[in-house]
Amino acid sequence: DTAVSQTPKYLVTQMGNDKSIKCEQNLGHDTMYWYKQDSKKFLKIMFSYNNKELIINETVPNRFSPKSPDKAHLNLHINSLELGDSAVYFCASSRRGSGWEKLFFGSGTQLSVL
Amino acid sequence: QQPVQSPQAVILREGEDAVINCSSSKALYSVHWYRQKHGEAPVFLMILLKGGEQKGHEKISASFNEKKQQSSLYLTASQLSYSGTYFCGTGGYSGGGADGLTFGKGTHLIIQP
Fold first, then answer.
1. Nearest residue, CB atoms, B100 vs list A42, A48, A107
2. Nearest-CA neighbor of B28 among B105, B89, B99, B98?
3. Cβ-count burial of A40 within 10 angstroms (0-12 exposed, 13-18 middle, 19+ buried)?
4. What Å distances lie between residue A70 and A86, A96, A97, B69, CA to CA?
5. Cis ω before B7 (30° cut-off from 0)
6. Mean pLDDT over all residues of chain B?
7. Mean pLDDT of chain A
8. pLDDT score, position A85
9. Which residues are paired to B86 by β-bridges?
10. Judged by CB atoms within 8 Å, which residues 52-81 of A form the interface with B?
């Protein structure tokens, strides 16, 4: 069983479209995250979320919004896609806040905006 | 605050050793090390929490200095499978809250036969 799974693996879309990436974890973890990895391989935190709080990286445009229907799911919605949004997006989870807990990553979603 | 990793890239022959450094201008709650192979997700290697701590994982080990501002990852007698990008991640600035890890820019390690 995959611990952290995200779909789709590849997403190709046109500028201006709205798209979603889904993420599910079966580890019983309290905290989930979205990371963006650009073409230079820089891994950047976008959001972290647990039952009680959503922490947003201030540099993330408000076109990006996380949605969590329950503790095991954290989906990423992106509105009005732009060329610069092309990247690999990783979902991750940890048992608690990641200061002391290791992260488990999903396999990534390669987003290409044309 | 993003930790600073060095070097940016290393090319080694199989069997050689490497050291990757990760530093911060302020004391850290923790340091994590991850390895990412091309086209794959980052995979956890180890976490260090205490000043002066050292940990080992087969031929890969790491240390965290007393002031908790620098960590080093040691790869001994490197194998082809060690190739990849190594990231250090720091977190817990808010005392362990769910604020996610901040990763360094990565060190690309290439092991040649």
1. A48
2. B89
3. exposed
4. 27, 16, 17, 37
5. yes
6. 89
7. 92
8. 97
9. B35, B107
10. 53, 55, 57
